[in-house]
Amino acid sequence: MSLTDRDRKHLWHPYTQHKTAAPPVAIVRGQGALLWDESGKQYIDAIASWWVNPFGHSNRFIADAIYKQLTSLEHVLFGGFTHEPAVLLAEKLIEILPRNQQKLFFSDNGSTAVEVALKASLQYFHNQNQKRTTVIAFEDAFHGDTFAAMAASGISFFTQAFQGMLIDVVRIPVPVPGREQDSKAALREAIQNHDCAAFIFEPLVLGAAGMVMYEPQILDELIAICKESHVLTIADEVMTGFGKTGKTFACDYLARQPDMMCLSKALTGGTIPMAITTFTQQIFDGFYSDDINKALFHGHTFTANPTGCAAALAAISLWQQPGMQENVSRINMQHRNFLDTIKTHPRVATTRLIGVICAIEIKTDNHESYYGNLRNKLYDFFIQNGVILRPVGNIVYILPPYVITNEQLATIYATVAKALDQVS
What we know:
The protein is α/β, with parallel strands linked by helices.
């Protein structure tokens, strides 16, 4: 019996309607930007496996760091204990984070990193006897699938089954070019009409919305509006962190920095689930009290797992190598050249690019749903042609590992161009 057949007997996959979905592709090996299935077919991982593998699959440097850590301390509880990998990782992150970030809280994944930030925002004001119960977020945002993170997300079919059960959220337009003033006005109105605790945003790129992009200058202005009214700001860098936009963090493009940042995905180079929420000293001090009830009562069994910390330290070391950052510049240039050739295609509506992220919006006669017919046809076409791409509606995006070769990129580009001609 094949691995795929065995899978179908017991496993429930994410974001999958099993009655209509095609059988999953059974992957048995990975190396660099490549994956192989159980029949030996090769695929180019053009989205770094949901944006987590910037340094490629089976990275020996990270694997060696994990092995070394496993032989000394695989895990210890973090409640009342500490260990060197967590301390080293904290020290390393403080060096590269925006200077206002001073405290780190560990969790398990991007959604829980956001959950921690939102809970901390609400409790921060509760600890000061202020009632602030509303969160501001962008329309079409996606911040995760735990309850508070889901509430802050604006993609309705992910959340429609839970309407009426979620925290209060006011949504404002994404400040894409031409809508900057609308976004600012909506933010001011939200703050004026609601008891707002925090504004959460994906800095510069809304990933699950289809790689929707906006400029750093307008985000600086939105953060400034929040600071005027003492509304806390949360940068969800789960996708953008560790080089995706060309800088270590998307917030590195900003003049004003958020109060909190959420990190995961590439944090451990795609090896071990781990997340971190970072805070200013001011936020931490809002919980520092003789009153035990003012503590942040949140935690995870694998908080600050030493093996995950070792993987993260190795991943950061790889990112800081000049050659890796040169790779990001190289990929950006390859993307730019490809978009220059494809943007005049009669089926291309718009193109977008920042760092290693490029996106192509395909013209359609009707609104294309997230998992609509065109998206499914494109996905199947890419898989059949040995390229792993997951279009978002009518948006095809490429976000590859930094170790991908120019030849592999050329294959991806050729496959996308072929899809534009053949898939409708």
